[in-house]
């Protein structure tokens, strides 16, 4: 059999599996490989290749010793200056927010250094749980310079903060520097994200710059590794790290 014929058969099996997944609820166990191979009249190796594709796309989950289960596809986010709400709506999902904590307080030495403000200046500290179609996706811990958004309220945090900052305060987040790494969640974060503490997460830590180049936001976001993926595009001219240079206050 030619390579083209093998690829065509894998694609056909993949389509048949997708039809089967569409008819089941999330978390449903699929029939065994032996049963599926017999149903689709293909070799088990062909079936495995099709299932590998679906697993890569996040549509099925293999659990050792238990079998294969259906899953929702991962939400894709971009490594760009865009909000969680924008990315979620772009994928045809409904964004949601649950405010876990919100307060106005004075910046200690560490926070002041990161925000480029004097020690004891006011800042807003908040934690938000971000959802897509009601499913927890990310946990955000952020701090905003208070004099940039003097009348910030908890209500401003219930939707797209970037949209609210631009509409109410004329503050537009135009740039950001972000570090990305894989981490394990602590017990509280895992509870809020409804995942086990053994589930790896994607952590983004960095700062946001307004249209004048001033640092107005610092934060750390924890994304579920099983439900979220991040993508970016690069060109040859982007070789080598480039860091934003925030303006002093």
TrEMBL record:
Origin superkingdom: Bacteria
Keyword annotations of the record: DNA-binding, Transcription, Transcription regulation
One MF annotation (Gene Ontology) recorded for this entry: DNA-binding transcription factor activity
Pfam family, one: UTRA
Gene Ontology biological-process entries: negative regulation of DNA-templated transcription
PROSITE patterns assigned to the protein according to its UniProt record, in alphabetical order: HTH_GNTR
Residue ranges occupied by any HTH gntR-type domain in the UniProt entry: 3-73
Name of the featured protein: GntR family transcriptional regulator
Organism, scientific name: Microlunatus parietis
Species lineage: Bacteria, Bacillati, Actinomycetota, Actinomycetes, Propionibacteriales
